[in-house]
Amino acid sequence: MSVPWPLDDQLCFALYAANIAVQRTYKPMLDQLGLTYPQYLALHVLWEQDGRTIGAIAQRLALESSTVTPLVKRLEASGLVTRERDSHDERQVRVTLTPAGRELRDQCGCLGEEVIARSGMAVADLRALQVEIRALRHALEQAGEQAGGGAP
């Protein structure tokens, strides 16, 4: 029987701790905008392509629809999005940015730049890291699908 690696040698812990550090970096900036980090990510999905369904938002964020629905409801209560049943498929709920939701995009434009600045890392190094993390995610998703576990 093998002994588990020390926590600091675990890739999962390094990714987890880095994710926490990123969220903590974003938090004060998002607090000023009245957003949580998951709400910010959902808005980002809509800034990429407005009018997506709850399912499409969930897929883009690698979440379950049941996780995205309450998040979108809170964005709607804040006046940033509207939700409507799809006229062609009543099972689908479309989410559309309001003017306030579109305006918020301009206010969030500098958040990524601020995180880059705070990291002290070169943009090229951060981009290379991002490519490697995406490759890891893709490989793990592929392995999960081949093992019959489906995508995370």
Radius of gyration based on Cα positions: 18 Å
CATH class of the largest domain: Mainly Alpha
Tell me the strand order in the biggest sheet: 1-3-2
Biggest sheet overview = 3 strands, antiparallel
List SSEs in N-to-C order: HHEHHEEHHH
CATH architecture descriptor text of the largest domain? Orthogonal Bundle
Helicity, as a percent range: 55-70%
Structural classification = mainly alpha
Total domain count: 2
By DSSP (H or I, 4+ residues per run), the number of helices equals 7
Which stretches of 5+ consecutive residues score pLDDT under 50? none
The average pLDDT value, as a whole number, equals 91
Q: CATH superfamily of the largest domain, please?
A: Winged helix-like DNA-binding domain superfamily/Winged helix DNA-binding domain
Q: Give the overall silhouette.
A: globular
User: Terminal Cα separation, in Å?
Assistant: 28 Å
The counted number of beta strands is 3
- Residue fraction in strands: 5-15%
State the CATH topology of the largest domain.
Answer: Arc Repressor Mutant, subunit A
